[in-house]
Write a structure and sequence with these properties.
2 domains; ten-stranded mixed β-sheet; 19 strands; Double Stranded RNA Binding Domain; 387 residues; five-stranded antiparallel β-sheet; alpha+beta
């Protein structure tokens, strides 16, 4: 039978070889904390259109350990309630909780630059595995973690207790932080948010760090690292690509229904200067969310098999429809806001600036607004008021 300790050491070595695991204390945590304990009652493995449930009781122990110590994201809940022990075969569903891949988890914890004595607030407990890694170094009293799903929080709390960490596990809306244990030296979010909540800034001591994923699309999101100043604002940059499930309170239902009816009446029609297919790439998608916050990108196929692409902003009652015409695209826009006009201007300016990557984006957070800019392109500046 495979020894769990040897699997932990093997995974730690893989993370070192990947270049993400650097700190001796974090390697010691990875080699000590049992990831399999945080996967109860089981996981769902992606089989394309369906998810195959796997539980520790239902597979060979060696196979279970192989799954637990893979460097993959392991889905633990579907549709906000379904766990692997509740079904007997493959099912369809939308992931709503997971044990994020160790490369991402370890990389984010390394980015926090933790030191002995730091107090940490984690937004999105999930399975509790990342919580345990931080508790192993900082101690259970220095880590507070907030989870919006009561069942997920209960399972994580039980797993943390079983591994010896009686930390502050709170059920609540992580967008509000956890003021009871503030101020914190570090805030880390394992969910994506449309913008960094000011509550996280307010609950972080000056000189502290806030780390979270910004964006609302499944792709085109970035990991923002902010330093909190003495004046109660925070400034930093997007340090790389990042992909997490959206915070539950900010999850938006996808645009559905008769798309032709939604776009029947356009106010304008013209040739697009930039192909909408650019929005299927990471950095253009990120820029689109800055230029047209609230917009959703929808991909569909016409009755003749032709590709159809749309931007919808339900709150602003606006749309952009893209029709393929050989190698070019026609854009039809309707509603009070020219969604594609704003996005296209950003994409053209970005291309003219040499198409810098996502780590060129800087941001400044105040109690009333979020400001984003790219230094290489003076015209690429956005201010999003907090309403």
């Amino acid at each position: 039978m495979t020894d769990p300790a040897s699997e932990r050491h093997r995974m730690a070595k893989a993370l070192v070889d990947e270049g993400v695991l650097k700190s001796p204390w974090l390697r010691a945590a990875v080699e000590t904390v049992s990831r399999e304990r945080f996967l109860h009652p089981g996981v769902f493995l992606d089989e394309g259109r369906t998810w195959r449930p796997v539980t520790a009781a239902g597979v060979d122990p060696d196979e279970w350990l192989k799954i637990a110590y893979s460097v993959d994201t392991l889905t633990t809940q579907l549709d906000g309630h379904l766990t692997a022990d509740q079904v007997g075969g493959p099912v369809a569903g939308v992931p709503t909780c997971s044990s994020t891949d160790p490369v991402t988890v370890v990389g984010m914890i390394e980015t926090l630059d933790l030191a002995t004595g730091h107090r940490v607030l984690e937004i999105g407990t999930g399975t509790g595995y990342s919580t345990a890694l931080m508790c192993h170094y900082l101690g259970e009293d220095n880590v507070a973690t907030v989870e919006v799903d009561a069942q997920v929080a209960a399972r994580a709390d039980a797993a943390l207790e079983a591994t010896g960490f009686s930390t502050w596990t709170v059920t609540g809306d992580g967008l509000l932080g956890h003021p009871y244990r503030a101020p914190y030296d570090r805030v880390i979010a394992t969910c994506a948010v449309r913008r960094i909540p000011y509550a996280w800034i307010r609950q972080t001591r000056p000189g502290g760090v806030v780390l979270g994923t910004v964006g609302s699309w499944p792709w085109g999101t970035g990991l923002a690292k902010l330093a909190v100043g003495d004046d109660g604002t925070a400034e930093g940059s997007v340090i790389g690509r990042s992909s997490f499930m959206q915070a539950r309170a900010q999850t938006v239902a996808p645009v559905a229904g008769d798309l032709a009816a939604r776009t029947a009446y356009a106010d304008s029609e013209r040739r697009a200067q930039v192909s909408p297919l650019a929005l299927e790439e990471w950095m253009p998608a990120f820029l689109a969310q800055l230029a047209a916050p609230g917009a959703q990108f929808v991909r569909a196929t016409g009755g003749d098999g032709s590709p159809l692409r749309y931007l919808f902003d339900p709150e602003k009652e606006s749309f952009a429809e893209f029709l393929a015409d050989g190698d070019s695209w026609t854009v039809r826009q309707g509603g009070p806001v020219g969604l594609w006009d704003a996005v296209e201007r950003a994409l053209v300016a970005w291309q003219d600036a040499g198409a810098p990557d996502i780590d060129s984006v800087r941001l400044h957070v105040t109690p009333v607004s979020h400001r984003y800019w790219i230094g290489q392109a003076p015209s690429l500046r956005w201010e999003h008021p907090i309403t």
